[in-house]
Amino acid sequence: MRCTSEIDVRDVDESCINIDPIQVGGRLTADAMKAVIAYGDGYSVCDHCRKPFRLDFIQKPPIQQFHKELAAFVNMDEARVVPGARRGFQAVAGTYVQKGDPVLITALSHYTEVLAVENNGGIIREIPADDGKTITTDSAAETIETVSREFCRPPVLLFLDHFDYQYGNEHDVRGIIRVARQHDIPVVYNGAYTVGIMEVDGKGLGADFVVGSGHKSMAAPAPSGMLAATTERAAEVFRTTEARTDLTGRTFGIKEVEMMGCTLMGVTLVGMMASFPHVRERVKHWDEHLSRGRKVVESLERIVGTRIQSEMPRNHTLTRVDTIQSFDKVANTHKKKGFFFSSELKARGIAGIIPGATKVWKFNTYGLSAAQSDYLAETFLGIAEKYGLDIQ
Ligand SMILES: *Cc1c(COP(=O)(O)O)cnc(C)c1O
């Protein structure tokens, strides 16, 4: 099947069990798919845009209401939709970071945080991870002290990933935010791997900002995401234009500078909105997704030589595993080399693991049904058995 003569149809999630770490939380709901078709045209949400001409005021479809619900969803005061979590980081960095300013991230931070800081001339300092690949409150406190001494002032911003993209480990956001607040450092809670799959309480954690990714964790089309803020911070990051052009003397009302006026003007926003009722419901069932994921991890651990590199027990469905002493040993003598593993998985209907990877790889079981996760667990064992690996 094809979309056009050049573009194949994509049916990974229809024909396979997909465990691609970055894709599973972004799969569209059926409602979002309908919205995608209806709102695919450019500027489609602008049909009923009236004064004061801003996206988050549109009432039909109920975009204004959606913004209120988004803020409440992560327990913050204000929210805006943005084209990806990274654009949320960019808006915050654009507000607080100037050339030469120190900005804290962590040793496990996502690259988009680095780019957001770099874009504004900020200087990155990383909070180190401990041996278990977690960012502790002590480590954060120490780094704040060191960096404050180095720059003779505290960092202007801290980006903190609740669960990191490398290990899916949980970091002590509550403790770290408490320390940051003692130094008056605004904190961006990066919920790329939380907002939309588990409950997030932004103000409860003391965060100044909560960033979420629509296409990673909110069953929305790309690029989409959200940036939420407290009332105090909203006034800064969502400041409106004050520009007046010199020749024509034009002004631009209440367009927000960091949002470039309007952000998601069609399919992305309406897709996100259509999935939202499902997303709001599914976060209450995170425990079930987690326990299914843990079962898959247990089965992998039974394959002798396999090492789970992520923290144990797992607190996220994204897991990093080291199979150098198991599947990679098979790869060493197999005629397909490392590709034997992905092709065995593919033959069994599993997609989403990097082809050729048999040393260290990641997978995410989020969204699988109980039957699918049981099948996945058995599949890993089955492949191990076929190649004579020992199973405990
Ligand atoms: C995926 C990811 C991002 C980027 O999200 P986008 O919505 O694609 O911009 C940022 N941070 C973390 C931790 C991520 O995993």
Biggest sheet, in brief? 7 strands, mixed
> CATH topology of the largest domain, what is it called?
Aspartate Aminotransferase, domain 2
CATH class of the largest domain, named Alpha Beta
Bound molecules: pyridoxal-5'-phosphate
Quickly give the CATH architecture of the largest domain: 3-Layer(aba) Sandwich
Global Rg: 23 Å
> Order of strands in the sheet with the most strands?
2-8-7-6-5-3-4
Can you tell me the number of structural domains?
Answer: 2
Structural class: alpha/beta
Number of strands: 12
Shape: globular
Task: Summarize the entry for a quick read.
The protein has 392 residues and is α/β, with parallel strands linked by helices.
Could you explain the architecture of this structure?
With 392 residues, the protein is an alpha/beta fold. The protein folds into two domains: 12-25 and 285-386, Aspartate Aminotransferase, domain 1; 43-265, Type I PLP-dependent aspartate aminotransferase-like (Major domain) (Aspartate Aminotransferase, domain 2, 3-Layer(aba) Sandwich). It has 15 helices and twelve strands. It has helices at residues 12-15, 30-38, 63-73, 85-96, 111-118, 137-151, 173-182, 202-205, 214-217, 231-237, 267-282, 286-301, 327-333, 339-347, 370-386; strands at 17-18, 78-82, 102-106, 123-127, 157-161, 187-190, 209-213, 225-229, 307-308, 318-322, 350-351, 360-364. Strand 3, helix 5 and strand 4 (123-127) form a beta-alpha-beta unit. Helix 2 runs antiparallel to helix 11 (267-282) and helix 4 (85-96) packs parallel to helix 5. The structure holds pyridoxal-5'-phosphate. Pyridoxal-5'-phosphate (PLP) binds next to helix 4 and helix 9.
